[in-house]
Amino acid sequence: MNLKSSEKYAPAAFEDLVFPSPTVERTIRDYKDGHTTENLLLYGPPGTGKSTIARLIPALVEPNYCPGDVTVYHCGIFRKVEELQNKIGKQIPLYANGDRRYLILEEVDNLNVHAMQMLKSIMDIGQKVDALFVLTTNEVDNVSKPVIDRCEKVYVGLTSPEHWLSRARSIIQQETGNLLSDDQLLQIISTAKGSGRQTVKAIQKYLARRARHQVAQISPASARQKEDVV
Fold first, then answer.
1. Is the CATH number 3.40.50.300 carried by domain 19-155?
2. Are strands 152-155 and 101-106 parallel, antiparallel or unpaired?
3. Nearest-CA neighbor of 130 among 64, 54, 69?
């Protein structure tokens, strides 16, 4: 198994998400249940699943959404206000065709003061054409207040290993067919220290070790079979 293939275990549905608190779960459920389509700002420490949630929002809001209506930007690419205007600002008016558009801006704190002002204006235009902005940041203090005020602001904190038991059990059972106990699962994922990213890596490492162990067991048996044939 490729240890870099974390996309393989990316949540495909609301039920696959691991929430650090009931507050986060209720907020994201509101998007799923159609109670809100407000712009969303997810903030918190690295590795807590902000990007994972952000990229699932379109599917939660519209189960039959068109992938072409979703655009993901890493805000580190916008070194100048003009780049933000050209990439996003000029596209927003073109969205006035009745279809909701989703703009996911990763690490929005990378924008400078002038770019933040431009983003505020772009978000205002987006309201008129049914564009939903989902922003993520590790440094919410570096996001301008006008941008924050245009969003539902949600803190995504660290999780406990217990939060991950159900998801970890599902992944491992899917890969191996084995159903592990809570104690066995906690031994695998407790080193992640609350990081969703590190939890997935811990599960991947466990699966890789298990695969290597199985190969090591099979190899001597194969050698003995060859000797028996000879």
1. yes
2. unpaired
3. 69
